[in-house]
What we know:
single chain; mainly beta; 10-stranded antiparallel beta sheet; 31 strands; binds MU-OXO-diiron
Amino acid sequence: MTTNCSPETSSAATARGPRLALPMLGHTRGSRSAQTCHFRCGDACLTENPSTSSAPAFEQLAQRAIARRSLLAGLGAAVVAGAALSPDEARAAGSGRGQGKGRGTRADAAVSAPGALAPAGALAGFAPVGPVAADVDDVVVPDGWDWHSIIAWGDPVERDAPAFDLDAQTPEAQAKQFGYNCDYLTVLPLGGSGKRALLVANHEYTNENIMYPGYVDDESLTVEQRMTSMAAHGMSVVEVRRDGPGSPWRAVPSRYGRRITASTTEFALTGPAAGSDLVRTSRDPEGTTVVGTLNNCAGGTTPWGTVLSGEENFQGYFRNTATPDERNAVYGISDTGRGWDLGDERFDLTKEPNEVNRFGWIVELNPYDPFSTPRKHTAMGRFRHEGATASVAPDGRVVCYMGDDTGGQHMYKFVSRDRVARNPRQGRDNDVLEHGDLYVARFAVEGDPTSDYDGTGEWVPLTRGGRSMVPGMTLEEVLVFTRVAAAAVGATPMDRPEDVERNPVTGKVYMACTNNSGRREPGAGNPRVRNRYGHIVEITEAEDQTSTTFTWALPVVCGDPSDPSTYFSGLPASEVMPIACPDNVAFDAHGGLWVSTDGQPGSLDLADALHHVATDGPERGKVRTFLTVPVGAETCGPVVDSVEGSVMVCVQHPGEVDGASIENQVSRFPYDGEVRVPRPGVVQAIKRR
Ligand code: FEO
Ligand code: CA
Ligand code: CA
């Protein structure tokens, strides 16, 4: 999503036709189209909300490290850290991304895998695709692979849902159909046959201009259309079935089918800030029940089979945004014209000033129980959550890594107070994420420059033992205004921290910093004035996930490899494929790192993609493109099965191109030949046998 792009860059792909009255048209930064700026993040670039932390900006530290690291290029110095897998971690490798039968097989493979070298297992030796131009309206997969659509916007999810009808969209229908702009994706085993699974997807935001016949501008939207968009946000649970391993998944009607929406679903607010004065409203005087979730971006799957979802750009959904609490200023709360208050007045902050404090959380959903009440966990802090990925530490505590996706914001870690069982049962709720310590990362460049690390860091506590660690702020204030607390303790401003995930094989943690073109002042010796292309941060905890110190390195500084400001762990440009704006990170059972992108069209004039990135051994830093998505789309939520040879992704916002409109579409994804609009959806690529 959002806030840091560069004004000199225009969208690579445009459509002929009437231009929308979009505030960012001609002013977009970096990789964004004006449509993206408007519909996804509410023209956030028009407002500034940098961290007030006094710590050196991460990009300055990073560039110093890049300069030092370049001295090491060619030495082949990368070494596998080789952190041992706990039984829980080994199991997580097989269950968190599991697809039915074979979980044990994948866990075994993970334990015995050498680390993240070249693509392994069924992915070994795949023929990279592309580079593919940004205006190609197709899903491109390697030779020897086929792809198909599993489900798309408007398809029935709940059993009594109507079929999609472009001309008869209603809030009631949408609340039972697959939502718009799917992002995070996970597939959880159902039963033991390997033929059934639960697919869970996030629905981040809506593109009204290519959804509704008759759209002219935001003012032209009817209240019913606005409420339909509201219902198109949230999450979906879909049962999928197949004939057996290696066969394509297909969506089926099921009692598990469930929509979670911004308008209809009740959430329980948990943790220390639940019930506080900061989250009470007239409709919820107890401050414990929130209706809806919104802007659900990335996420994670817990070892006990629940799904975490990050409420990201919650700041752009409210009217009359001059909130009385100045601590919300750093969140950039702004009226984006969605007009949800016309159908639900709690989105008018003059009527419900605390409603905005009830979004921006990590959500937990148990997809195995269609009647479960999803939760929002206040112990994990409130910010523009990209996502959260959970793993179990050797002592049984659960650790979640999290990014706050805005230029100059921070990276966080939650460590639970309580422990989970060694073999938590799938789909059984627990309250382990309701209490724990919240940390924020502070990076430094220290140590021996000839060693195999680039810097050190510490996790600075914001809360510990149920108490605030931030002078002048109560526990509730730290959790509701977490950005303020992080700045107060000197957290490191970073280049839009997106997805963060732990490699279940090596134990190292990888974070995608997608870009930060807002930076105008380079650091000393900094070869890259603007970080238009982003980079990947590798973190090695001192001991395990609960450690409070770490070392860090940058295995990949993204861009066109011919650009001297890029860095691919010392590999020559001829051996590397271009990559830009990394967003989601995921691991396969062999420890292979997969990185999906959101911004290659605007930054490299290439289609957004899913890449394999080698993190260890002589190929460390090597990028191989596995697939690309249609014009206007970003690649989201990769689920990579390196045992069976299956790769699933969400195709988010196909056709989101400046100038596109309901009558002038640039994409017809998923190409079903009947519907006149692009429909965001889930695809699966399968290795041909
Ligand atoms: Fe919704 Fe940070 O991407
Ligand atoms: Ca994104
Ligand atoms: Ca994202």
